[in-house]
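Consider the tokenized backbone below.
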């Protein structure tokens, strides 16, 4: 009925019962619901970088994609869900979400083959975003700074 997340006062960590309920709910979703939905052909999307406590942009999507894979969805299908599937759902599939001549593209260049598992996404050489190249070291510096801001209590 709900995700079960409740914050305790001003705390970002929530109370123990709410955390336990949230954990049970998400485990049920990824172990039972997501595989059943996928087998039934129901379209699913990835997108956990919402402003929700405990979900940190830049990290949460990788966690979610690993959970999709652990749910039994093959790695290349997980990547399709997160790219072409997302573009299609937003009505942008005619211009984005695929590596096709003439499409607008942000690209992630990997040092590993993602067909072997979505963990390969963490092994990037860099990212091309809006025509600008960000090397892996640039991304690491930015993500480390983001993690530190969250550690101190804010985005």
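A designed sequence for it:
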């Amino acid at each position: 009925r709900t995700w079960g997340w409740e914050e305790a006062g001003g705390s970002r960590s929530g109370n123990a019962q709410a955390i336990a309920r949230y954990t049970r709910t998400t485990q049920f979703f990824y172990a039972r619901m997501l595989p059943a939905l996928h087998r039934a052909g129901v379209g699913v999307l990835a997108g956990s970088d919402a402003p929700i406590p405990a979900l940190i942009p830049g990290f949460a999507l990788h966690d979610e994609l690993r959970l999709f894979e652990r749910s039994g969805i093959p790695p290349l299908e997980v990547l399709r869900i997160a790219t072409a599937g997302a573009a299609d759902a937003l009505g942008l599939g005619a211009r984005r979400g695929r590596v096709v001549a003439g499409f607008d593209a942000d690209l992630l260049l990997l040092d590993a083959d993602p067909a072997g598992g979505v963990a390969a996404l963490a092994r990037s050489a860099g990212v091309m975003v809006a025509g600008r190249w960000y090397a892996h070291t640039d991304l690491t510096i930015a993500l480390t700074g983001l993690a530190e801001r969250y550690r101190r209590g804010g985005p």
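The longest strand covers residues 124-129.
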